[in-house]
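All the exercises in this workshop are built on plain-text protein records. A record pairs a protein's sequence with a compact description of its fold. Backbone structure tokens are a discrete shorthand for how the chain folds in space. Once this layout is familiar, the rest of the handout is easier to follow. As an example, a complete record with its sequence and its structure tokens follows.
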Amino acid sequence: MDNKKILVYFVSFLSLSLLFTGAYYFSYKKALEDFTRAAKERNEELIMSLEERGIIIVQDDNRNEPNSDKYNKDDIQATSGNNKYIDKQIQAVDNLDEVVVEPTTRYILQTYDLVKNDRLEEELRVPSYLVGLSRQEVIDYLESYMDDLPWNEFRDGLTSYELISFSKEEIVIRKTYNSNLVEYLFFIQAIDDKIVVFYSDQKTVYDYTNMSTYRLSEEEKSKLEEGYYIKDLDELYAVLENYTS
């Protein structure tokens, strides 16, 4: 009796195992077919995109045959007749987002002076702070530079800093200056009752004068607390001398 029970349990276990194995096999097969179909669709979309851009030419022999591999390599011809060219173009599209500035990238800096109407173009060693950056990261860097200009760039009237072209082989960046836009060189202000002279960017200190405002009139104190611009050194010396007299 016990042997019969064992046999029944064994047969039941074996049946269940076969059932689950079969279900798993068919599920795996369906998932594999879905993945293959999705991969083929993505490949077809890429080939069609390249064809629309004129990079490749696809023969029409099999376009209307639903069961044919209509984008087989033998059916694709590059305009130059060289299939290796197609492979390079497809690889370039796939890796487009991975292009970054490398130490060997040619770095061209264009400088425009709108006042003098001068243009200078130099090929320089690529700056270390640009190495490894993508196109968008280079643009972000240039924008942040403009948001926080060094004093010398502010003084010289840097008005734009832009990326002209970008590739793995070469990047071109342009700086445009207009010194006529810089009307004042200094900014004077009272900080904690002490007179401080800034450059006109209002952040770079030119001189901590140690001059106190306690002897000044309320009107002069109020003016200094708000701060005001000064055109050049001659005017600055005259203003400071007036505060000490």
Notes: The chain is about 40% helix and 25% strand. The helical segments are 2-52, 83-94, 135-147, 151-156, 218-226, 233-244. The beta strands are 56-58, 76-78, 106-113, 118-124, 158-166, 170-177, 186-191, 194-199, 205-212, 228-230. Residues 61-71, 73-81, 92-96 have pLDDT under 50 and may be disordered.
